[in-house]
Write a structure and sequence with these properties.
This protein is mostly helical. 74% of the residues lie in helices and 0% in strands. It is built from 14 helices and no strands. Helix 7 crosses helix 8, helix 7 runs antiparallel to helix 12 and helix 12 runs antiparallel to helix 13. The termini are far apart.
Length: 315
């Protein structure tokens, strides 16, 4: 593999890893509040298809991303109501959301004789920096050759890391995820916190879906996500519920998604199913390594009250 192919592959890994990062970072915020949302795939498709539709109607890509985020958050609101208010099993609720979001995306995509499938965004996600900057050796294609969504995702990682581990609000949400009864005792609204952070997770998935359709592929097709939401869920575990680790893990997973194309360039053919399996295989391997080391297990552990319903009457 020559240098140009390697640089192209690494730059593509950043782009492909960005929707994984957006969806995974949102799910990480949700899980820190104690709510597990397996419905990322449904929110990504549901929010993404509406965001993509918006991008085909007008030229404001930030507006399309915002619309995708809002729709994703509304899907997550359904999960929050079921999981937090009704205390339905969170696994069941999340899986139902996958079916709902996938069906919604297929319904929207089939309207007007599937016109959306043949539509294209009015404008494209263009690189932020000029050609002279993008042509710089190494740093150009890897760091300076991306659109604003990639850089926004970096900012969101920094904000999430600071918010969760350097602010009182972050301490409060982590308290809800670790010990909701104690958090309730000191005056933190467990229900409100879980609602808000579940919707933040949905917004991240919606943005990821919009960028996937309008930014990377510039089209909508049924099943376009190809399990990206499930990879985002695995990302949270692989990263040990830490935002900066999620940034690295997202690009590792992005590289794995892009590996098939890169290997085809150099004449190596590997079945796509094998490559699609690798992110989940790496997550399992990481969990096995962490479990074998108690010190690492403490640093990479999930919130103690994750997926556990809370009721003030039973505390």
């Amino acid at each position: 593999m020559n240098e140009s192919v390697l640089l192209l592959s690494l730059a593509s890994a950043v782009v492909i890893g960005t929707p994984i990062l957006l969806a995974g970072l949102g799910e990480m915020m949700t899980e820190h509040s104690g709510v597990m949302n397996l419905g990322i795939e449904g929110m990504l498709l549901g929010g993404g298809v509406v965001g993509f539709w918006m991008s085909t109607q007008q030229a404001s890509l930030p507006l399309a991303m915002a619309v995708g985020a809002v729709v994703g958050a509304l899907f997550a609101l359904i999960h929050a109501y079921l999981a937090v208010t009704l205390r339905v099993n969170q696994i069941v609720s999340g899986l139902a959301l996958v079916v709902t979001g996938t069906g919604f995306a297929s319904f929207v995509g089939s309207l007007n004789d599937s016109a959306l499938i043949y539509s294209r965004p009015v404008s494209k996600f263009e690189p932020v920096f000029g050609e002279a900057m993008r042509d710089l050796p190494l740093v150009g294609p890897l760091v300076l050759g991306h659109d604003w969504v990639v850089y926004m995702s970096w900012v969101l990682v920094a904000v999430a890391a600071f918010w969760l581990f350097r602010t009182r609000a972050g301490l409060a949400v982590r308290a809800v995820g670790e010990d909701p009864a104690t958090a309730d005792t000191v005056g933190i609204s467990v229900g409100l916190t879980r609602y808000v952070y579940t919707m933040i997770g949905g917004a991240g998935a919606g943005m990821g879906g919009t960028y996937l359709m309008a930014g990377i592929f510039s089209t909508y097709q049924h099943g376009i996500s190809a399990g990206l939401g499930w990879i985002a869920f695995a990302l949270v575990i692989f990263a040990g519920w830490r935002p900066w680790r999620a940034l690295v893990a997202a690009y590792v997973f992005g590289a794995l998604r892009n590996l098939g194309f890169s290997l085809q360039i150099v004449g190596v053919d590997i079945p796509p199913d094998v490559l699609n399996m690798l992110p989940f295989f790496l997550t399992v391997v990481a969990l096995m390594i962490i479990s074998a080391r108690p010190a690492a297990a403490r640093r990479f552990s999930a919130p103690s009250a994750l997926s556990v319903p809370y009721s003030r009457e039973t505390r």
